[in-house]
Design goal:
This protein is an alpha/beta fold and about 250 residues long. It has 2 domains: about 35 residues, no CATH class; about 200 residues, Muramoyl-pentapeptide Carboxypeptidase, domain 2, CATH 3.30.1380.10. The chain has 7 helices and 9 strands; from the N terminus they run αβαβαββαβαβαβββα. A 5-stranded mixed β-sheet has the order 3-5-6-8-7, with helices on one face. The chain has a two-stranded parallel sheet with strand order 1-9. Strand 7 and strand 8 form a beta hairpin. The longest helix is centred in the N-terminal third of the chain and has 27 residues. The protein is globular.
Length: about 250
């Protein structure tokens, strides 16, 4: 919504000089009222956009730094969907990526999960982790459903670097376990409480859920693939580019 007002709509004559005076006098107040809804979500929602802001935000906070998951989780597989057209939008939202990023706390938990699954001949495959705030705004304009997308007014746990979208794969074959739906399936069948599947699929989802929650992640009830660390508000929202993160971490 624009806050601009075309002053030329006032036909200035001596007769209307007073009307023009009052219009100009109250213009700032009118503009403020018009723009209130547009700006309200920004007033108390700081978003980190520079490496300097990022470094300041993690100072003295162990485990808050962002790390490259390819380095932090050995053997992890990646299929970063928003780096390709293989997603529900059928277009790229990220630059080409062979790995991605998250907070060190989350990465350590994922490494432990990878180790636990490896004993069963299994491992994790990551579809998404860190997501720039600008991409969250773009997704919201299309989805606008809090069951499947985060409102920009609140931000996403992906923007905080503490959320991950993932599945389980067979390490020998690389084939994903059948979870009943693909990633980013916006239907009831993607919900954790949807049980109208063969028992093998239900058990696959339960395996992912149990190993994730055992290592500190919380469930997102409407997406079987989405997990995040608790206490989200202690982690700042970020709109750092992947190029910025590469320079920060020195990886991939």
């Amino acid at each position: 919504m624009s806050c601009s007002v075309d002053i030329n709509i006032y036909k200035l004559t001596n007769k209307n000089d007073m009307k023009f005076f009052w219009a100009v006098l109250f213009l700032p107040a009118v503009c403020s009222m018009v723009c209130q809804d547009d700006l309200s979500h920004k007033k108390n929602l700081p978003v980190i956009q520079t490496t300097r802001q990022y470094q300041k935000s993690i100072a003295g906070k162990a485990g808050f730094e962002m790390v490259d998951l390819q380095s932090a989780v050995p053997g992890c597989r990646f299929d970063i969907r928003y780096s390709s057209a293989n997603n529900f939008l059928h277009r790229k939202l990220y630059p080409p990526l062979t790995s991605t990023y998250c907070r060190k706390q989350a990465a350590a938990a994922l490494a432990a999960i990878q180790t636990a699954l490896k004993e069963k001949g299994l491992g994790i495959k990551i579809f998404d982790a860190y997501r720039p705030y600008s991409v969250t705004k773009e997704l919201w304009e299309i989805v606008k459903d809090t069951r499947y997308a985060a409102e920009p007014a609140k931000g996403s746990n992906h923007n905080r670097g503490i959320a991950v979208d993932l599945t389980i794969v067979n390490l020998e074959t690389g084939i994903e376990l059948n979870m009943g739906t693909d990633f980013d399936n916006f239907s009831d069948s993607a919900h954790h409480n949807f049980l109208s599947f063969p028992d093998s699929i239900v058990q696959n989802r339960l395996l992912l859920k149990s190993v994730m929650t055992k290592h500190g992640f919380e469930v997102f009830e409407t997406e079987w693939w989405h997990y995040a660390l608790p206490n989200a508000k202690q982690f700042d929202l970020m709109d750092l580019s992947f190029k910025q993160l590469k320079s920060i971490t020195g990886d991939h």
